[in-house]
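Quick log. Single chain, no ligands specified.
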Amino acid sequence: MTTTATGGSEVSLLPGELDRPAEPPIRTMRVAEAVSAARQILEVEGADALTMRRLADEMGIQAPSLYKHFSSKADLELLLIEDALFDVGDVTHRALHDSGHNSTILSLLVTYRAFSLSHPNLYRLATAGPLVRQRLPHGLEEWAGNPWFVVTGDASLAQALWSLAHGLVILELDDRYPPGSDLDGTWRAGAAAFERAVVVPATS
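-> predicted structure:
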């Protein structure tokens, strides 16, 4: 396959870039409503506020009714993580094709930072603790992380670059940098360091 859908458009795949995985089966109307309401609670009020009782109240139903659709809160959270991976995958794959005046690595980092800081509670849910990856749609996790491989061409460098980005995001979310820190400069420095580490194939 030579094209991939990113945000509703089709573009030619870059070397090493994976095609977007197939969407999972369509959710029932009630499940979709619950996931949407849960995401709203999570994004606005934080993880502690997201309980099955709070979600039921938001939906105007009794809490036991939710267990007709989810065996546990963990099942609901897994769908939120699934949505988060599709969302971050879409924006980071798009960043590979629309880097503007930035290098591709910097474009990826800037885009990842913006998405993560805009959705801090969803980001924490999707990246903290063990991941029940065997229950995710086939290929989703690999595709969502694929942009890091595309810009480095090496699995270990890709994992290191994502780890850098994740650490920077968490420290920024936790407000752990000293006052007055030039965080834009920190992200640019990280990009520059990895650009030096990436081996560019020789051209004839």
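Residues 26-70 form a domain with the Arc Repressor Mutant, subunit A fold (CATH 1.10.10.60).
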